[in-house]
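Obj.: predict assembly geometry.
Materials: sequence records (below).
Method: joint structure prediction, all chains together.
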Amino acid sequence: MRTITFSIVLVALFAFSLTLFGQVSAPSPGVGIPLGPLVSGTDFSGSYRWLNHQDAGLFTAAGDIADWGGIPLNDAARLYALSWPASRQTVKQQQCMGYIPPYTWMSPGNHRIWEERDPATQRLVAIHYWGQIAQVDRTIYMDGRPHPPAYAPHTFPGFSTGKFEENILTITTTHIKRGWIRANGVPQSDAATVTEHLIRHGDVVTVFSVVNDPVYLSEPMSKTSLVVRQAIAPDAWLYACDDSEQILGRKNDYVPSHLFGQNPFALEYAEKNKLSLLGAFGGRETIYPEFLGAVKDTAAAEAAAKAKMLPSGPQQNSRAPDPTPNDGNIHVFHVAGSVYLLAGDGANIAVQVGPQGAMVVDTGAGKLSEKVIAEIAKLSSKPIQFIVNTSFHSDHVGGNKKLQAVGADPSLTGSFFSNQFADAGQGATILGQQNVQTRMQEQKPPMEAPPSDTYLEDRRRKYHNEEAVEIFPMPNAITDGDSVVHFRRSDVIVTGDIFTTTQYPFIDLKNGGSLQGEIRALNFILDRTVYRNDEDGGTLIIPGHGRVTNEWEVAEYRDMLVIIRDRVQAMLKNGASLEQVKAARPTADFDPRFGATTGPWTTDAFIEAVYVSLKNPPRSAN
Amino acid sequence: MKRSGLVVLIVLILSIKGHAQGRGGAQGGRPPTPKAAAPFDMTGYWVSIVTEDWRWRMFPNKGDYGGIPLNPEGRRTADAWDPAKDEAAGEQCKSYGAPSIMRVPGRLQITWQDDQTLKIETDAGRQTRLFRFAAEGSKGGDLQGLSRAEWELNGPGLGFAIAGGGVRGGGSLKVMTTNVRPGYLRRNGVPYSANAKLTEYFDLVKETNGDTYLVLTSTVEDPTYLAQPWITAVHFKKQADASGWNPTACVVR
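Observations (raw structure tokens):
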């Protein structure tokens, strides 16, 4: 009897296992809660080291200057790389630059991969990666969560999601900061997205990656790297990078760079290794077999290569997607502490909330003010108490009137102001540098609701919503009335248009702007920021337009402006006219990221602002 | 009771094996041919994307053996390389043998010669590699040696069998090549010997934009000239047709 029962159990078990094997579709996620796969395709857990059996010359994570063969970089990227000297790394913010995917796989330190499983369900929630060099801390979410919105901050590791495609782990990464395709000057832009496919055979993992970078690549860059599993995990896992003073006495508006066509090391690598210079300079043609035939005419190839050392061809437009949502809605993003970003109505709006009424920095274009008010009401039950204008430009003050009207400033009601003004405390108090008020009133017709509480040269301080808030006037930057606002406890700085992630700075010469003041203002911001580790995290920045950042992007913006300034200055010294400067395309390497050939702020208009600023410096520049 | 548990385990393992036989498996009949069992289709035209080891694959110089873990004898032999001698001896194809041909920039045409043999033809050097799934066939001894192939299919594991869920499947093509005629790992006289053993894994990757890549991870073991196995990877992009197919003779330099 026992034998018969046992046989029945066996048959049932076998049949049950067949049923299970017939179910090859992915497990259904729970309602509202994304679940990762129960069983992974391949377990990659372990500690690894990079295998330098290929690309051995890059083992120190760099490579020689102009060792770019096999990189489908475009002309702008090549110019960027040719103008990059290794001494750029002495600039404070460049010293602890993080590593980005997929370059991080080629870093010479140790790599660790481990799984995170939900203890209750054993579902695979995430796969973690730690890279020793620059302490790259990646989480690859396996639970099907979406990627953050375009206006969210980028980090060096980016935001990664993964899925198993049979035996291959496929990782998709967005929100990556500007980093290196190769750390000898070839940039990977912050518009790049990366796909990595991890394939394991025994102890060897082949990482096949594809970089899509509309800014700096002519076509996707596909590449393999190899890491090999280490039987015994080493002890070295940290990087311990702190930036420091490397060159005493250097001004903070000094950024080492080579002028176009004047990199003294551009030919060295090709000559030393008896290579075609055309090949060493890289480009999409160098990755295909046909390139071997293309350089048979060595004289023609050499001439073609040398021509690539200077800008050529038409001016480029930005190819980076605009992170600003333009769908007629206001999008709210928690930045840090008590500070939120409201995006969607012209310039970015920052809102600080707490036990007192909201403090709002800039009010947008005013086209969606009702929606802005509705979103602020969700964040704070109290009326808006303060509005700060970082600029008089209409996309920053357009909502002043409506937002002021729904606000109230209880700090005035019952004070001596009540004796002077019958409406004291009614409506939010608007603050701004005096020139914001002046410029708004000068317009014909005058702009509505200018700041009534103004300041001139010194910072304004407030202790509001249980944090110190500092408002700093920034003379002659975008205009003569700019301010930046620092929420100190939240550690968020709102920069106005002094910093944007979407275009060259809109230096408004007619209203007191200047390149010198702009660079000075960016350096002022950088003097107030800290990073958490390796240029990630720490003080967060809400730009006038574009996505939330930290100091890295501000430093990159400052570096760009200094480099462009130095190029234009060099041409001015040689007596170049504005038209000659424009024709020389001093912004060529940055145009695919920030340039515009049409619209309200073109590259030509920016170059003109640089030129005029340098030719007729404002008094504040001295 | 212990015996009962053991029997249950055996039944489960048998059931796993039954289910791990791959695509196209003939249930209860003859096993599928390697062609029918292929977890992915490698046939067609492929172009090598030279983004790894660019300098050494495109313009290798004599004595430039960076990355290859040569032993002293390997370095001595590489340093003594005389391309003129190879040309004079009609040995232009020594860097187009199995251990190196897949790193030579060029195009591949992959077809099934028959149900048991996958054929790879290269336009660079006009070489032909035959990956034999069956035991019979060539004994090697030429530049391409003897290549034994097998599909490494991803069957579900035991935990998978018990718990269910998840998606497994797919696999890799594993090729082991021996009996090669001595040649060069690079087009600059870096040697491998007749003792060299080549293990290759081919994997297929599809990007969301439709691009398809063949990723090849290779290990060359050669106690004569290498201090340790030389492990590398290359990749090829699928082409829609034969464009660019340009058969050329072997060249020494």
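Conclusions so far: The first strand of chain A starts at residue 46 and ends at 50.
To do: check interface contacts against the pulldown list.
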